[in-house]
Amino acid sequence: MLDLIAHYWPHIVFALSVLMGVPAAIHVTMTKEEVRSAVGWVGVILLSPIIGALLYLIAGINRMRRSALGNQRQLLGDAFVDHIEVFDAEDAAVAAQFGRRFQAMKTLGDRVNRYFLTTGNTIEILDGGDAAYEAMLQAIAGARRSILLETYIFDRDRIGRRFATALAEAVKRGVAVRVLIDAVGARYSVPSVLGLLAEGGVTVDVFNGNVIMGLRLPYANLRTHRKILVVDGHVAFTGGMNIREDFARDDAGVVHAIDTHFRLTGPVVADLFSVAAEDWRFVSGELLSGEAWQIATPATRPGSPMLARAVASGPDRSLEANQQILMGAFSVARTSIRIVSPYFLPDRELIAALATAARRGVSVDIIVPASNNLTLVDRAMTAQFDQVLKGDCRIWRANGPFNHSKLLVVDGRWAYIGSSNLDPRSLRLNFEVDVEVYDLDFARLLEERTDRMLKTATPVTLEALRARPFALRLIDRILWLGSPYL
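== Cardiolipin synthase ==
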């Protein structure tokens, strides 16, 4: 057998090249919607059919087929519709309070998203890990019926063990508990927290892979980056914060990172529950139904502030929903766009939208950390800054600890918060969840936060970028070439 292989190995390699390369190239041609991506992958496959096809299998198939569950109200049943439907926001009311351009934003959201813009919501800003974790742990401790938690990272450190203990105690009280952790995020701790949760009786699963054996092909590059906690169908938490001690000053000390999380009540809780419940059903096959998982009746009045809805996006039928919302928001801006993002690597379309807004006279300020936890991403960001600055936008480096917050405000009226970064991974590869908010007071609070950051931030200038040594700029550009998969 070995002699046969040794004699005919060129023929075997040729046959493998055809059998692997041709189907891969056909799949690229038929499924990729962006011509640059399609041409790039076909080139890689043609130049190296075997290795290129394997790379495409691992990193190039960016659309996950999931059985459609319909919108949130179909998932949660008639009992949900009866007491939530009255909170739906009317077009005329949005136009009267925020202007016709933001009524257009509502229409856009209605068409690219599966969730309804609702009135009667409340959102509390949780500043930093200490405040966010304490509020989340209090909610878990007070749970009486159900807890649904989805997160990207759940470390087995001091913070993670506190959550694991609180969840296990909830199980002992008879609370229905489900925990979903991304397969990549679960690997951030060795050993992972999965065993600790299971020992406490918590029903836990991983998204899109197996922590011990490896990631599930061909979707190994697709992750859930969502952070959702829903307790008793009454209160929800979301934002950018993972469960790890890096964000808690009491545990991480002076090297702690900064982040912003949010506590929500009202009809928007049903949106967030629906997103996490759909992900749970995808990985486990279990439909979360019955009395334990019922959505509570909001305590607010229909028609009262604030207006909000979840925006679920990801490499399935919700592909690029967050990008389309952002493009719409930039196009309706008249006075200001404020962006806070730890990883700012927008594509050409978003850069063009920001530049167009700036050249219409809109003040566009983008705040990124001066110190970043991902050096390669920061270098790639730096390589792209000149494109943004040439479009009359301003970029600022925020001093102090690394800031992981994701905040966006348009015209002091419309806000966008959640898990999405402005980078290729969040916009095309990750499953993300964000919340668009129509509320003057909430937008003002976020603008005040950006004002405080700007007071001590350092502006990024074209002159300073061009003054950097050529070797550094070249390395940055090389890293930028790989930015879609950083």
